[in-house]
Write a structure and sequence with these properties.
With 226 residues, the protein is mainly α. Helices cover 52% and strands 0% of the residues. It folds into two domains: 128 residues, no CATH class; 89 residues, no CATH class. The protein contains nine helices and no strands. α2 crosses α3 and α3 crosses α6.
């Protein structure tokens, strides 16, 4: 697949690692994009500054070996369906599986004769890559929240404090949605929206009019379970 079909390196990476397209021939530019994204993932750190991903060279070498295994039709990486062998990774039945499930079976769980995992680091990258949001709607929503937090009355707020306030608001909304999901309910838009400005203070906030009911229902549910 040619690189010019995509707008960004991550698009090329997602295409190459997708179960439906990983067997295709990709040009050097697309592979270069993949390795660029792979290197960026290898540099991700947690809150304590510790690396959370495998080394770039390890993932790259496993990718090359995985592509060679696909070409050689090793480790069930084929589209054949035989009675005395496990069904191939690229049969219609397995292709209908979710990307995460497919990656776990035909990448993460692949072992050599000694029982050593062959592509577990590459599987980590593939799972993380497939979990990347493909829509900017969540970012747009958070920018809107930041806009009414950092308004004319709060225009001297430092950026770190603004980001903390945005996170706090987002956590309140998530808390409400989680409590509702535990009761197998779906939150209505009116329950997670930003409330209208108060006519006296011109302040906005989370519409928490139903929080007391949700908390009491959640408490009752826990008591019933005990």
């Amino acid at each position: 697949m040619a690189r010019n079909a995509f707008h960004a390196p991550v698009h090329s990476a997602c295409f190459i690692m997708d179960k439906a397209f990983c067997r295709m021939q990709h040009d050097d530019a697309a592979r270069k994009d993949l390795f660029q994204v792979m290197e960026a993932f290898s540099k991700v750190k947690d809150a304590d500054g510790q690396m959370v991903g495998p080394a770039f060279k390890t993932m790259k070498s496993e990718f090359v070996a995985w592509q060679e295994a696909i070409s050689a039709k090793k480790y069930d990486l084929h589209d054949e369906k035989q009675h005395d062998q496990p069904e191939g990774a690229f049969t219609q039945r397995n292709m209908n599986r979710s990307q995460q499930s497919w990656v776990k079976t035909f990448m993460q769980d692949v072992m050599d004769e000694k029982g050593q995992a062959l592509f577990d680091n590459l599987a980590w990258f593939a799972k993380k890559l497939c979990s990347v949001m493909t829509s900017a709607s969540a970012c747009e929503h958070m920018w809107s929240i930041e806009g009414w937090i950092h308004n004319k009355r709060r225009n001297r707020l430092a950026q770190p404090n603004v980001e903390k306030a945005v996170r706090a608001h987002g956590n309140l909304v998530l808390r409400k949605a989680i409590l509702l999901s535990r009761q197998q309910k779906v939150a209505w838009d009116s329950q997670t929206r930003i409330s209208e400005p108060d006519r006296h203070t011109n302040e906005q906030g989370v519409d928490d009019s139903d929080d007391d009911d949700i908390d009491s229902d959640a408490s009752t549910t826990r008591q019933d379970q005990h």
